[in-house]
Structure formats: C-alpha cells, structure tokens
C-alpha cells in the first residue's frame, strides 16, 4: 500500500481558492482524494475545481463557497459535502484572517475580535460539524494550518500570533479527546510563505532581507512546500501522529 495514498478519501479544505489552501487541494487530489474547494467567492473556487477536474477527472473536485465567519455557511459546507459525496474523511482548516499590521496597542476591538473569531472560533465550529461522524466511524484526520507565529511574538502581527498559538492548543486538546476514537488532530506551522495573505511581510524589502539571512535555507517558502505536510498528516503515513504542530519554515525557528 502507498502510505501517502488518499484514494477514496473526501477532503474539505477551507481557504483553498489560492495560496496554501489551493496547493493542498491540488496535491490531495493528486494523491487520490475527492476535494471540496471552499472560500468566500464561488468563481475563485470554481477555477481551482476546473484545474483539478481537467487533470484528474470530474468526480475529483467540487466547489462550495463559504464564509468562515458564518456558522450557517460552514454547516452548509459540511451538509452539501455529505449530501453529494458522503462521509468527510479529512478536514483542513486553512482559512484565516489578519486585518491588522502594527503594534498590539493600536489594534481596534473589531479587528482583534475578527482575528480571534475567524482563526479560532470558526475552526472550532467546523471541527464540531465533522468530528462526530469521524468518531462514529473511528477514522479521520483534522488539520489546522497554524503558523510559526504561534511559537513566538511579533511587533506587527501580534494578534495573529495569539490566534495561531490558540490553534495549536485547540489541536492538542482535541487530539486528547478524539484519540481514543482514532481521530487525529494536528497543526501545520508554516514559516514565511510567498502567498497573497503574507504579502505585507515578503514585500517589505528590509524584513525580507533579514528573514533570508536568518533562515538556514536562505529563502522563503512556496505554498506547495506546505502541501506535502498536509498529505502526510492526512494519509496513512501520519497514522501515529496526533496533537502535533509540524513546523515547516526552512529552519528559521531553530
């Protein structure tokens, strides 16, 4: 058996119309999964679905638009997936928000709440929608895309870092709860990846230069370099891994 096969698995991936989520969707489809592409805007989701279908077949991807800030949208995402494809085997909570860049003292209450709601509470909602049936089947993999920001402080994205540290603890807590039912919960903690989401960081020439110098691999990452970690955690290859935060950062945190 191919340890990395996802043949016959149904995977929901939030925030998968671009960046890291898109890369995960493409690679999971490559490894055999039926992928549900989800983000706020349906046309962007459909573009990714078309890419997957053109390469792997019509039954390998579908789009369900959902705003992670809406509990109803998330419920519809899961309900439509189950209605069309049956059980959800893999959940990737990738979508996140970071509407503020600057010192913590300057963040508005609504910005702070949006970060906490979208990056923590929404994950809690979505996991609670898929976990009960995973527990019944005694099989499932839940992956939260966190960040190395959850491992250290920052003078400019502090609230985001706080939320990502909470995601790591969410994974640990749920891994303890779900472990007896053979449902695994893990985080991936990327370093600086060249995505639109992180544009404010890698377009800052001074910050990028400093990051290059302090990163052992002397470069920032590509979204596809996170996708491999997601395939590992979703597949049989990661069957004895739970409650962990897998750091994928080119060595910067060492």
Summary, kept brief:
The protein contains 8 helices and 7 strands. The protein has 254 residues and is an alpha/beta fold.
Give the topology, please:
Blueprint: E1 10-14, H1 19-30, E2 34-38, H2 42-56, E3 61-63, H3 71-85, E4 90-93, H4 109-137, E5 140-145, H5 158-178, E6 183-190, H6 199-202, H7 205-214, H8 224-234, E7 245-248
Parallel strand pairs: 1-2, 1-4, 2-3, 4-5, 5-6, 6-7
Characterise this structure.
This protein has 254 residues and is of the alpha/beta class. The chain has one domain (10-244): NAD(P)-binding Rossmann-like Domain (Rossmann fold), CATH 3.40.50.720. The protein has helices at 19-30, 42-56, 71-85, 109-137, 158-178, 199-202, 205-214, 224-234; strands at 10-14, 34-38, 61-63, 90-93, 140-145, 183-190, 245-248. Helix 1 links the parallel strand 1 (10-14) and strand 2 (34-38). It is globular.
List keywords for this structure.
8 helices; alpha/beta; Rossmann fold
Strand order of the largest sheet: 3-2-1-4-5-6-7
Work out the helix count.
Answer: 8
Tell me the major beta sheet: 7 strands, parallel
Distance between the termini: 35 Å
Report low-confidence residues grouped into runs of 5 or more: none
The overall average pLDDT, rounded, is: 94
Question: Structural class of the helices, strands and pairings?
Answer: alpha/beta
How many individual β-strands?
7
User: In the CATH scheme, what's the topology name?
Assistant: Rossmann fold
| CATH evolutionary superfamily | NAD(P)-binding Rossmann-like Domain
Report the top-level CATH class.
Alpha Beta
- How many structurally independent domains? 1
Beta-strand percent range: 5-15%
Shape category: globular
Mind telling me which CATH architecture this is?
3-Layer(aba) Sandwich
Radius of gyration using CA atoms only? 17 Å
Order of helices and strands: EHEHEHEHEHEHHHE
Helical proportion, percent range = 40-55%
């Amino acid at each position: 058996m191919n340890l990395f096969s996802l043949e016959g698995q149904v995977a929901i991936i939030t925030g998968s119309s671009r960046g890291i989520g898109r890369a995960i969707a493409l690679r999971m489809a490559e490894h055999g999964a039926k992928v549900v592409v989800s983000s706020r805007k349906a046309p962007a989701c459909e573009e990714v679905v078309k890419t997957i279908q053109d390469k792997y077949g019509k039954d390998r991807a579908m789009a369900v638009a959902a705003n992670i800030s809406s509990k109803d949208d998330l419920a519809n995402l899961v309900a439509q997936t189950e209605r069309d494809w049956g059980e959800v085997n893999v959940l990737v909570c990738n979508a996140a928000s970071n509407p503020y860049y600057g010192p913590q003292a300057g963040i508005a209450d609504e910005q702070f709440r949006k970060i906490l709601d979208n990056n923590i509470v929404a994950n809690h909602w979505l996991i609670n929608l898929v976990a009960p049936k995973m527990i019944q089947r005694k099989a499932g993999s839940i992956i939260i895309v966190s960040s190395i920001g959850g491992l250290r402080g920052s003078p400019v994205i502090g609230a985001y870092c706080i939320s990502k540290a909470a995601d790591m603890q969410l994974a640990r807590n749920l891994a303890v709860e779900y472990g007896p039912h053979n449902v695994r919960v893990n985080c991936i903690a990327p370093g600086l990846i060249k995505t639109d989401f992180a544009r404010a960081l890698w377009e800052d020439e001074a910050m990028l230069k400093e990051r290059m110098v302090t990163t052992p691999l002397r470069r920032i990452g590509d979204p596809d370099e996170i996708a491999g970690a997601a395939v590992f955690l979703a597949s049989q290859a990661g069957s004895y891994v739970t409650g962990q935060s897998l750091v994928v950062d080119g060595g910067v945190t060492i």
